[in-house]
Fold this sequence. Notes:
- The protein is an alpha/beta fold.
- The chain has 2 domains: about 5-120, Rossmann fold (3-Layer(aba) Sandwich); about 120-240, Winged helix-like DNA-binding domain superfamily/Winged helix DNA-binding domain (Arc Repressor Mutant, subunit A).
- It is about 40% helix and about 20% strand.
- The radius of gyration is 18 Å and the shape is globular.
- Calcium ion binds near residues 8, 9, 10, 53 and 56.
Amino acid sequence: MSRVLIVEDEEHLAAGLRFNLEAEGYDAVVAGSGEDAIEKLLAANRFDLVVLDVMLPGIDGFEVVKRLREAGNYMPVLLLTARGQAEDVLRGLSAGADDYLPKPFDLEILVARIQGLLRRKEWARKQESEGQAEPAEYAFGDNRLDFQRQLIARNGAEQPLTLMELNLLRHFIRNEGKNVSRKALLEEVWGVREDTDTRAIDNFVVRLRRYIEDDPAKPKHLLTVRGVGYRFVAEPADSLE
Ligand code: CA
């Protein structure tokens, strides 16, 4: 049974979410504040996923996800944002959230998003056990991307990735050598079709460059294509000489 932590200070809403997630077969626990959430999440690896409201008294949702990632915890985080707040989405994804849902939402949509995030996790695990389809690793330049362990090994160090960072990198790799537009990335990686601010993508690219480039200011693998988006190049021409 998957265990979900619900972080929401409005008791009525939190209780309703817990009731409904339990009815869907999840083991659900409520944290009423950001501090409570961090304590529960860092105490033990008891949860498979976090549903995290942005608006919390004290430490807000952005700070919770940021601290979680800083502590080396890369579990899937679904952020609940205020509708129409594009800035919240950008901030949340930059802080390390995997997905978001604007409030108020339909319960079926929340459950579908949760299932989607857990499925991606399960899918990676299943592929690992069956040893099929996607290669376990992908090497480019000084980097070795480990899909199952969800990290990049580079110069003897390992950088863990969030699910979204991994999915974005996977998409770039599948389109190696081709121009990829920001809009296509939003649609195909995030599944976002409404008018979302494409700066979310730029934030992620800045982070990925810090992980994979010798000089993030002069990228050789993850190139900006002016007026279009990005292009991933596995082996830059000058490294072949
Ligand atoms: Ca709240």
